[in-house]
C-alpha cells in the first residue's frame, strides 16, 4: 500500500536506484580528471570558476553546486551587484550570509547564482533542528560539536537532501540583517538600511531582487520522473520526492497516497450496497409485478439498513483514517528527520513589523508587537470581515434561488425563446458572482492576515489557511447543506452530488493539467528548444521563465472538499468513494507531472506534517456525524419504516440525537485510544529527548 | 479573592510572618551559644548527636533537622538495623541513599530518624526538575553546576520547602537499588536481594520497615494553623500551605478557594431568579385571586425565561471557570517551581514488575513490561470488570425501585405496622448494598490498576482515579439521571436535589471532621498528654500514632459531585450554588483543621496541577450541556409555552438539539480562545525553554 515504511522493499530500492544512486554517479564524475574542462560540477558544466572564495579551509572544494538563482532588477548597477555578492559571501560575524556567490558568465548580467559551503550547511542544519542519522543508526538532533558522530558529514550532498540545501540558502539569505545603519551603493539615498532591518526583504521591496528560486537538477529530476509517474507501479517514490522537492510536497503526496488507498473499503462497501439494494428492489418490483413507475422514482435509493450501514461506516471510517494517518505522518516525520524542528525561537517572519525592542524570551533586539493588539485585530477586524464574506456567499445563494424562481415564473408566462435564455441568467450570474467573490476574498484574506502581524511564519500560515478554508468550505458546501437541511430534498441532493463529483473532478483535472501544459507549450517555448551544448547559464535562466509554483493550497482544498463530499453526504450517494478513488489514482500522476514539469522548483521548508490541514480534516470528520445523522433522519425510507413500526416523529428525532451522541462518543474514544505515533517512533523520540535532557543536565 | 497572586499583599506578608519568619527565628536559635545543651536543632532538642557522618565537607553542620521517621518491625535485629543505617548513610556511588540517619536515643530501638545533607538535597532538586529563583529574579530549572547563581543555596531550609526536603528523603530511600545480589544481615536466607531490586520495597514487603512518614515541625505548624483557620480572614495562606504540606495539598486548597469564590455569580443569579420568579408568581396568583391550590404545585418552579437564563449561564460559567482555573493553576505552578518537572524518564514505580531488560530509551537495566500486554489487560480485564460494577449499580437501583413498588403494594394490601416497617426495607437494603458495593469496588479498582502494571506512578494514579471516578459518578448520579431522563419527573428531581445538597453536605461535614476528631481524642490520647520536657524521640514516636492521611481522593470526589449537582441540574434548583457556597466556606476551614491536626503529615510530591481531576471537571462541564438542554426540554413551563405558541413537539426537540450544538460550539470556542496560561507565565516558561535550548546546542 505504501512505499516508505515497512521492510524497505520497493521504494528504498527506488531511491537508491534513482536519486542517491545518481548522486554516486556524479561523485565519480566530479573526481574524474578528464572532466576538468566542464568543471565537474554536478549539472553546472560551464560554471567551474568564478565562485567567491570560502574563508574556512574545510569548506574548500573545486566543485560548487549551483543551488539558487537570484534574479536582479534590470536597473541594478554593477556596484550594487558587487555589494550584494560581497554580502552573500561575508561570514556571519561580519553580518553576511556565509554563502558562495557566482555573478554569472557575464559578470555584468542580472543574475547571481548562490551555493552554500559545508560549514554553513552544517550550522544551519543544527539551527533548524533537523535530525540526521547518528553513528549508532538512530536519528538524532544534529549538532555541529558532535558532527563526527553523524553519518555522511563529509559528503554534504548525501548528508543533506537537495531540497534541504536549497532551503538553507533561502534561510540564510532571508536571515540577513543590517548590523548598522547602511547606504546601499548604487541606489538612491531614499533606500537606506536601519540597524537590524531585514536586508533581503528591503531589497525585494525596492525591486533590486526580483526573484529567488531554487534550481532544478536535471539528472535527478529525470530519475524522479521515471520512478514517479512514467512507470506503472502503484507506490510513489516518497523518499525521493522528499529529497528532491522537500517535506511540504512529500507530505502532500504521502497523504494523497494514504488517503487514496484508504478509500478502498468505503468504495467496496458502496459498490456492494448499490448492487445489493438494486437486487432487492428488483425482486420487490417483480413480486409486485407491474407497478414499474415507482422504480424510476427510487432508482438510486437504498434500503434503511443499507443507509444505516453506509452512514455509520463512513463516520467511523473517517476517524480511523485520520488517526492512522497521524501515525504514518509521525513515522514519516521521524524518517525525514523533521520530528524535532526548532521552530519556536526563530527570528520573526519577514513581513513582521513593530517597535524595536528586546524580546523578553530570547533577549534579542527585534521588532515587538503586543499580543493584545493582535488579538484585537483578529477579533474586531478579521472576524467581522470574514463573517461578512460568508454572509455574501449565503446572499448570493439566496439571490440565485430567487432569480431562478423569477426566471421560471417569467418563462411560464411568456414561454418564448427570450425567456428560455433568461432561464440561464441566474446560474451564470451566480457563477460569475461566486468566482469574483472568491477572487476578492483571496486578496482580502491575505491582507487581513498580513495586517494581523503575526510574528511566526507558521502562525501566519495557520491563520491564513483557516480563513481561506472557512470560506471555501462555505462556498462549496452551502448549496448542498441548503438542499439537505432547508429544502430537505434528498433526490436533488443525490443528483447534485453525483454531478459535482463527476463534472467538477473532470473540470479540475483539465484546468489543473491541460491548461498549464498548453501555457507551457506556447509561452515557455524557448525552454523546449534547449540543446545540450547551450551554455549552462542559459539553462538556469530558462528555468526562471516557468511560472512560480502556486503552492499546495489548491490541492489540499480539493482533497478536503472531496473528503467533505464523502464523509458529509456519502450515505446519500454510496458510489462517492468509488468515483473519488478513480479520480485520485489519476490525480496522483497528474499532480506529479505538474510539479515536475510545469513550474519552477519551489522552496520547501522542513515540516513535521500537514499542519493546519490535519485539523481541518479532523473537524470535518466530526461535523460529518451531525450531517449524516440528519440525512438519515430525513431519508424517506426511515420515515416509512418508522411509521410502519408506529414510532412517533419526536421519538425518531430523539433516536437520531442519541445515535449522534453515541457516535461522537465512539469517535472520541477512538481518537483517544489509537496512539498518535507508532511505538517505535515514540521510543526513538523519547531517546532523542532523553539525550537532550542528559546533555542539559551536564551543561547548566 | 485569592491570596497568592497579585501585588503580594496579604499572603506574602503572611508567609514571611509565619513560616519563613519562623525559619529566621530558629536560625537565630541555632546560632545562639547558650542553646548548645539542646543541640540547637530546630525542634529536635534531644537529638543533637548520634547522626551518621557526612562524607562531603560542604554538607557538614552541627545541627541536623529530623525529616522522616522510619518505623522498623518489632522482630528486626540490631544487625539489620545497623546494615540499614549504613545503607542510608552510604554515598550513591556505593549504592546508598547519601542521607543522614539517627538510630534514636536508645540505639537498639525500633526507629530510624532520617535527614538529608546539602549535596543530596541539591542533586535531588536537579533530578526532580524543580525550578528555583535565579540570581536574575526569574525562576529557572535548578542545576548543580550552576548552583551559585541561584538564591539561598547556602541555607537549604530556605532554598527548599519542608515538604520538598521530606519528599527528597522519600525519593532517595525508594530509589535504593541493590548493586549486586545480597543477603541482608539478621534476616533469613529466604530474603535475599537480586541485582537492581528495589531495596526499600523488598524491606517493606518483608515487614522490616513498617512505616515511613515525614515529621511535623511543631513551630511551623502552629504558625500555619493560626494563619489558616484560627483567624478570620477570607484568604488562605496558600504559599505557606505549599511550603509545609507540599504541592498536592496546596493545589487542592487553591482549587477549593478558587472554585468557592467563583460560585458567587451563579449564587447571586440563583437568588435573584428565585426571588424574582416568586414575585411574578405571587402577582399572577393575586390577579387570578383565589385559585390557591396551583401554587403548592409549582412552588419552586421558575418562568421559562428564568429557566433558560439559569441553564445557559451555568453551562457557560462552568467552562469559563475551568479555563480561568487553568490559568491560575499554571501561574501557581510557576510560582512554586513545579512547572518543568522531569517526570518523564524517572525510574519505574515501586510496584512495577517485569522481565529484567534494557530500557530502550534510557539504556538503564530495569524491569520491562510490553505495552501491548498492558493494553490487553486494560481492555480485556479491567474494562469488563468496571462495566460489570456499573451494571451492579444500575441493578441495585432497579432492585430498589422494584422493592419499593412491592413494599407499597403490600402496605396497601395489609396496612399494618409490619407493612409500615416493610416500607423502609428497600431503602435500607439499597443503602447497605451501595456501601458494600462501593467498598468492594475500591479494593477491586486498586488491585486491577496494580495488575495493569503501569511503569510510571502518574499513569498509575490516572488509571486508578479514572476507575474510581467513573464508579462514583455513576453511584451518585444514576438515581438523579434516572429521575430526570427516564421518569421525567422534575418536581421529584428538585426535591431529591435539595435534600441531597442539604443532608449529604451536613453528613459529610460531620463524618469528615467530628468522627476523626473523636477517634483522635479517644484512641490517640497519649499524644494529648505530651509535655514540653518529654524526650524528643517520644514526641516523634507519638506522631506515628495518628492515622495516616487518607489522601485527597475523597475531597476531590466531593467537589466533583458538587460541581456535578451544580452544572448538571442547576436549572432545576437555582439555589444550588448558594448552598454550595455556604458549604464550601466551612469546608475550607474543616479540611484545613483536619489535615493539620487529625492525621500524620503526608508526603507530597511536587506536582504541576490537579492532574486527572482537571480533565474530570472539564468533561463534566461538557456533559452538563446535554443534561441541561434535556431538562429544559422536559420543563412543563416550556411545554406549555410552546403549546401556546403552536410549536410542535418535534420542533421543540429540534430546537433543543440546535441549542445544545450551538452551546457546545461556544464552549469549544471559549476553551480555544482563553489561553491556558497568563502571558507572563508563558514568557517565563519560554525563557526557561530557550535557555535549555541554548544550553543543549552548546553541549551536544
Arithmetic mean of pLDDT of chain A: 80
Tell me the fraction of residues in β-strands of chain A, as a range: 5-15%
Silhouette of chain A:
globular
Q: With helices defined by DSSP (H or I, 4 residues minimum), what is the helix count of chain A?
A: 25
Measure the end-to-end span of chain A: 47 Å
Total beta-strand segments of chain A: 10
Task: Report low-confidence residues of chain A grouped into runs of 5 or more.
Answer: 1-46, 290-301
Largest interface: A-B, 34 and 34 residues
List keywords for this structure.
homodimer; 700 residues; mainly alpha; 5% strand; disordered N terminus
Description:
The structure is a homodimer. Chain A has about 700 residues and is mostly helical. Chain A has two domains: about 55-215, no CATH class; about 230-285 and about 300-370 and about 455-700, no CATH class. The first copy, chain A, is about 65% helix and about 5% strand. Chain A has helices at about 10-30, 80-90, 120-130, 155-160, 160-175, 200-205, 220-230, 240-245, 245-260, 265-290, 295, 305-335, 370-415, 415-420, 425-450, 455-485, 490-525, 525-530, 535-545, 555-570, 575-595, 610-635, 635-645, 650-675, 680-700; strands spanning about 70, 100, 110-115, 130-135, 140, 180-185, 190-195, 210-215, 355-360, 365-370. Chain A has a four-stranded antiparallel β-sheet with strand order 2-3-1-8. A two-stranded antiparallel ribbon of chain A has the order 4-5. A two-stranded antiparallel sheet of chain A has the order 6-7. In chain A, a hairpin with a 5-residue loop joins strand 4 (about 130-135) and strand 5. In chain A, helix 3 crosses helix 5 (about 160-175) and helix 17 packs parallel to helix 21. The first copy, chain A, starts with 9 loop residues before the first helix and ends with a helix. The interface of A and B includes residues 145, 371 and 690 of A.
